[in-house]
Amino acid sequence: MIAPVEATETTEAKAGYTSFFGKVYDGATPEQVVWEEKISDGPCRLLKPRIPFCSTPCTGGAVCVEDERCRDYPVSQNIGAVHVTGVANNASETEFDLEPISNGYQTTDLPYPAFSEGDPITVSAAGSDFTPAFALEAYGIAPFGLSNSSIVLSAGQALTLIWTPAGQADISIVKVKLDISHHGGSKGKIECEAEDNGSLVISASLISELLDLGATGFPTIVVARQATGSTEISNGRVDLVVSSSVEVAVEVPGVISCNSDDDCPEGQTCETTFLMCQ
């Protein structure tokens, strides 16, 4: 679920929506960037990127995942017809079937929200040559929204996030990704995995460390409520993730975001790689 966005002076309102999408692969997706923990504090940690180096370039679509080590991308698989229950569609039916399209299973023919908090949601796969039949179960969650009127970062000051807590906190968690330098190549990010109890404090030390790494234009924070169900199959693990997320702009002292020179104060120009006035 993606929460609705209210209109501002410069942007139009966006309606909330629900979508269902799934794919099963024959392995984990390799990461081209290795994120290494620098420091942690409570449920949050500061991660810095490291780019692995392979002196012999990876071939055949493989990715350099560690120094001198390549890994192939996994291949999506057909798992047979999928039956979904506990999710309403626009015809007010709470169960429906999906056939694979390019080994993907998806529909956007869903209302917002398409379930209530605590509703059991099941996904049952008929099975195929890749895997026998299997089923997954997770639980519906309430739509998520931050109560903060704005998100402002300051060195030496903690950041407190506030939201309406889950009615059933034992079925969901809240995940946070704070990235203030994703344009031009991220210098670092803060990630958190916290209880869904209505508030989270990201410590002053973590905020200061992140600011010290530098910021670029249009910094954001993504916060998501998630409930997850998993099952093991012969080829590994399959997860069913029910998620409701918001992405909010972040204010960083000294950073003026821009798309063109017209967005910048007199005497400054828009640096198009970092999307910030200089």
List keywords for this structure.
278 residues, mainly beta, 4-stranded antiparallel β-sheet, 1 helix, 20 strands, 38% strand
SSE inventory with pairings:
Layout: E1 20-22, E2 24-25, E3 34-41, E4 44-50, E5 63-66, E6 69-71, E7 76-77, E8 82-85, E9 95-98, E10 105-107, E11 120-125, E12 134-139, E13 159-162, E14 173-179, E15 189-195, E16 199-202, H1 204-213, E17 220-233, E18 236-249, E19 270-271, E20 276-277
Q: State the share of residues found in helices, binned by percent.
A: under 10%
What class would the helix/strand composition place it in? mainly beta
Average pLDDT across residues?
95
Q: What is the strand arrangement across the widest sheet?
A: 3-4-15-14-17-18
Q: How is the main sheet built?
A: 6 strands, antiparallel
In the predicted model, the low-confidence regions spanning at least 5 consecutive residues are: none
Q: What share of the residues does DSSP label as strand, in percent?
A: 35-45%
Shape: globular
- Count of spatially separate domains: 1
Kindly provide the radius of gyration, computed on alpha-carbon positions and rounded to a whole number of angstroms. 21 Å
Total beta strands: 20
Number of helices: 1
The H-and-E topology, N to C, reads as EEEEEEEEEEEEEEEEHEEEE
- Roughly how many Å apart are the termini? 37 Å
